């Protein structure tokens, strides 16, 4: 629970967990033994230190116990406390200690506690950078916020251990490492000393000979440092939170990078993007933490904000890093996935209410948590045995993560004397490919996404391999041995279907059904792309997956028959319906057509038909995620807005800085059109909005078009 300005935001509510106690059953089914869980001060006692509402926590903690999990109770998680205190208030530490006393009296059996999550990180974001309340941005406020949290932890554990002497402190902190050029050695040394400060303080190590003693004493806190050192509260377990971005490289050579000049006078970069070889990562920081403290360690946050296979690769590597360190004598106790049901607006550090949801092991966008492939991976790790052996062969895990490959480098590489690299966790075997049927815009977009995501693929066209021939299709499958087939073949356009409805219907049905049957017989995942043209004759509101098809043209009727044939041939198929596709790379879509017209100052006529514009790069990436998740059934994957074609092309024009007044709205019947178009074919989904917002997609489309235009100009020059 986090405060920005006067606004509190509660992830428990934003992700829907507040009202879903059965989430706990989902968690337990993964094989989880201990669960970090909130009993947050801001929720339990929001109005007064003496008024508590335990009802929600009572029910949840009881259910956790019934399911055989032990909670690690958190009292604040990047929070600044209720409105009657703050991180820089004198009463913060004693009031949190008072709250801890109330919590342990309520739940005296709880053994593991995290009174304050990531004190250093919270102090930085709240009192040094000003992102979170109390929005301070000076050294004294930063050190005050940190010391208040350390004292709050000490007082909380004193209160807890007075009731439960066996209680253990699990102290979490983000742990990375700084690297840098020689002129910035002092900067690197300072940050590398500071990264340990939370644990150093609690362990009683910050005495006058500590590298940061003078820095903290300089702003008036020497007496507090003495008091903490005289009465330490060392963690029983170090909770290490580590991300790709936790390791940084600072460089004084500003001209070496095509980046804006920073206020600090040096660039602060993600180390994995510039250092070669790559930094040691999780294995390196865990080794350092063990050598420094000799206290048992848990990885208390392991997460990557990325595509599904990269999220899996991150956890897979983290697991194997932990196992390898255990064999070397490092006492690593646990690996924790963060966050089980995802998070909202963490991409902006919670400073903007954009509603940006990032799924984790479970995706909650439909309202009912949907297990992703990450959940399958966690379940395999939790249960071991045959499940784990089978997961090791998952095609997504056949490649190394991007942070371990040369494609990670975004800048001219900087060489350094690296220690031994992390464990390489790919299987080493050639991965079975994804087979993409169709070489049109959709097939090319899928192949491009597979390349970016390091997912091996083969792409074949209808002319080379007629997929409606059972014999040729069987030969194709047996030759390539794919684990997934994506049917992106587009045999007939809307107009062609109207001119030859019987021929296009038969061809489309066979194109869909033959590969579906052969994939089903071989246990291969099968994905088929349908269309929004299935709809338009029955309602104006957006159509969900459970709406009966109501096509108004032959093309839509053909897609309906193709879907029926797929359902019979392959009941486990994934069927995707999308809205009007647009892309910066395909020259034959509505967004590119209006751009070409307006750049020549020609009027552009667009219809008043309502559609759901769908950004093709977002569509194919989401489809690949769903295939990796093992999803099936019919999915509507479209943009989040229903608007007329004319309004859409005006939005495109404005995003590109072109004259939107040249767009003329028509009735929807272009001269020469044979096929009728639906007045509305907008899509919605019972599964939640899976694609990013249209506004965001248009921004990225415009940026990509500028790059494409620059490339074309360079080629001409």
Automatic annotation (TrEMBL):
<dbReference type="Pfam" id="PF04321">
    <property type="entry name" value="RmlD_sub_bind"/>
</dbReference>
<dbReference type="GO" id="GO:0048270">
    <property type="term" value="F:methionine adenosyltransferase regulator activity"/>
</dbReference>
<comment type="function">
    <text>Catalyzes the reduction of dTDP-6-deoxy-L-lyxo-4-hexulose to yield dTDP-L-rhamnose.</text>
</comment>
<protein>
    <recommendedName>
        <fullName>dTDP-4-dehydrorhamnose reductase</fullName>
        <ecNumber>1.1.1.133</ecNumber>
    </recommendedName>
</protein>
<dbReference type="GO" id="GO:0006556">
    <property type="term" value="P:S-adenosylmethionine biosynthetic process"/>
</dbReference>
<dbReference type="InterPro" id="IPR029903">
    <property type="entry name" value="RmlD-like-bd"/>
</dbReference>
<dbReference type="Pfam" id="PF00232">
    <property type="entry name" value="Glyco_hydro_1"/>
</dbReference>
<comment type="pathway">
    <text>Carbohydrate biosynthesis; dTDP-L-rhamnose biosynthesis.</text>
</comment>
<comment type="similarity">
    <text>Belongs to the dTDP-4-dehydrorhamnose reductase family.</text>
</comment>
<dbReference type="InterPro" id="IPR017853">
    <property type="entry name" value="GH"/>
</dbReference>
<dbReference type="InterPro" id="IPR005913">
    <property type="entry name" value="dTDP_dehydrorham_reduct"/>
</dbReference>
<dbReference type="GO" id="GO:0008831">
    <property type="term" value="F:dTDP-4-dehydrorhamnose reductase activity"/>
</dbReference>
<dbReference type="GO" id="GO:0004553">
    <property type="term" value="F:hydrolase activity, hydrolyzing O-glycosyl compounds"/>
</dbReference>
<dbReference type="InterPro" id="IPR036291">
    <property type="entry name" value="NAD(P)-bd_dom_sf"/>
</dbReference>
<dbReference type="InterPro" id="IPR001360">
    <property type="entry name" value="Glyco_hydro_1"/>
</dbReference>
<dbReference type="GO" id="GO:0048269">
    <property type="term" value="C:methionine adenosyltransferase complex"/>
</dbReference>
<feature type="domain" description="RmlD-like substrate binding">
    <location>
        <begin position="434"/>
        <end position="685"/>
    </location>
</feature>
<dbReference type="GO" id="GO:0005975">
    <property type="term" value="P:carbohydrate metabolic process"/>
</dbReference>
<keyword id="KW-0521">NADP</keyword>
<keyword id="KW-0560">Oxidoreductase</keyword>
<dbReference type="GO" id="GO:0019305">
    <property type="term" value="P:dTDP-rhamnose biosynthetic process"/>
</dbReference>
């Amino acid at each position: 629970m986090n405060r920005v300005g006067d606004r509190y935001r509660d992830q428990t509510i934003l992700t829907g967990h507040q009202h879903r106690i059965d989430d706990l059953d989902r968690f337990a089914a993964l094989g989880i033994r201990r669960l970090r869980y909130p009993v947050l001060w801001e929720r339990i006692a929001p109005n007064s230190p003496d008024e508590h509402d335990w009802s929600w926590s009572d029910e949840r903690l009881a259910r956790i116990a019934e399911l055989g999990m032990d909670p690690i109770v958190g009292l604040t998680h990047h929070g600044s406390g209720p409105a009657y205190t703050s991180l820089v208030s004198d009463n913060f530490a004693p009031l949190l200690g008072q709250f801890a006393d109330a919590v342990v009296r309520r739940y005296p059996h709880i053994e593991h506690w995290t009174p304050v999550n990531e004190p250093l990180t919270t102090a930085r974001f709240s009192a040094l950078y000003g992102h979170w309340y109390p929005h301070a941005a000076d050294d004294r406020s930063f050190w005050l916020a940190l010391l208040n949290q350390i004292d709050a932890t000490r007082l909380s554990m004193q209160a807890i251990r007075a009731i439960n002497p066996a209680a253990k402190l699990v102290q979490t902190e983000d742990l990375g490492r700084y690297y840098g050029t020689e002129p910035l050695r002092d900067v690197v040394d300072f940050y590398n000393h500071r990264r340990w400060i939370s644990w150093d303080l609690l362990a009683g190590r910050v005495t006058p000979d500590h590298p940061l003693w003078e820095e903290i004493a300089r702003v008036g806190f020497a007496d507090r440092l003495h008091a903490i050192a005289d009465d330490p509260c060392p963690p029983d377990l170090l909770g290490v939170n580590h991300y790709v971005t936790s390791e940084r490289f600072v460089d004084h050579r500003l001209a070496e990078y095509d980046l804006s000049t920073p206020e600090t006078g040096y660039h602060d970069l993600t180390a994995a993007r510039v250092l070669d070889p790559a930094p040691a990562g999780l294995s390196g920081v865990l080794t350092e933490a063990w050598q420094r403290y000799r206290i048992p360690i848990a990885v208390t946050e392991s997460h990557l904000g990325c595509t599904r296979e990269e999220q899996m690769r991150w956890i897979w590597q983290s697991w194997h890093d932990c196992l390898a360190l255990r064999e070397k004598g490092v006492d690593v106790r646990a690996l924790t996935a963060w966050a089980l049901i995802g998070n909202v607006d963490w991409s902006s550090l919670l400073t903007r209410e954009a509603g940006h949801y990032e799924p984790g092991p479970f995706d909650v966008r439909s309202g009912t948590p949907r297990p992703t492939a990450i959940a399958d991976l966690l379940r395999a790790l939790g249960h071991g045995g045959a499940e784990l052996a089978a997961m090791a062969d998952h095609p997504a895990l056949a490649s190394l993560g991007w942070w371990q490959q040369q494609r990670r480098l975004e800048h001219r590489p900087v060489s350094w004397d690296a220690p031994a690299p992390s464990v390489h966790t790919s299987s080493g075997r050639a991965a079975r490919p994804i087979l993409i049927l169709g070489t049109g815009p959709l097939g090319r977009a899928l192949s491009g996404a597979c390349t970016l995501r390091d997912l091996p693929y083969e792409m074949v066209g209808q002319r080379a391999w007629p997929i409606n021939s059972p014999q040729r299709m069987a030969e194709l499958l047996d030759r390539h041995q794919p684990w997934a087939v994506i049917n992106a073949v587009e045999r007939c356009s809307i107009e062609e279907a109207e001119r030859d409805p019987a021929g296009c219907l038969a061809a489309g049905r066979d194109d869909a059904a033959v590969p579906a049957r052969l994939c089903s017989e071989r246990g291969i995942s099968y994905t088929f792309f349908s269309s929004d043209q299935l709809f338009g004759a029955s309602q104006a509101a957006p159509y969900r997956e459970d709406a009966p098809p109501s096509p108004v043209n032959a093309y839509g009727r053909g897609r309906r028959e193709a879907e029926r044939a797929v359902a019979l041939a392959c009941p486990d198929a994934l069927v995707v319906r999308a809205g009007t596709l647009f892309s910066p790379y395909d020259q034959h879509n509505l967004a590119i057509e209006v751009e070409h017209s307006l750049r020549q100052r020609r009027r552009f006529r667009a219809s008043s038909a309502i559609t759901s514009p769908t950004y093709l790069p977002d569509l194919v990436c989401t489809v690949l995620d769903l295939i990796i998740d093992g999803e099936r059934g019919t999915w509507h994957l479209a943009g989040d807005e229903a608007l007329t074609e004319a309004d859409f092309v005006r939005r495109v024009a404005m995003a590109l800085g072109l004259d939107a007044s040249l767009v003329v709205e028509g009735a929807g019947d272009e001269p020469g059109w044979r096929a009728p178009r639906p007045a509305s074919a907008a899509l919605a989904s019972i599964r939640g909005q899976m694609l990013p917002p249209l506004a965001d997609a248009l921004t990225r489309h415009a940026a990509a078009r500028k790059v494409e235009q620059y490339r074309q100009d360079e080629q001409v020059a």
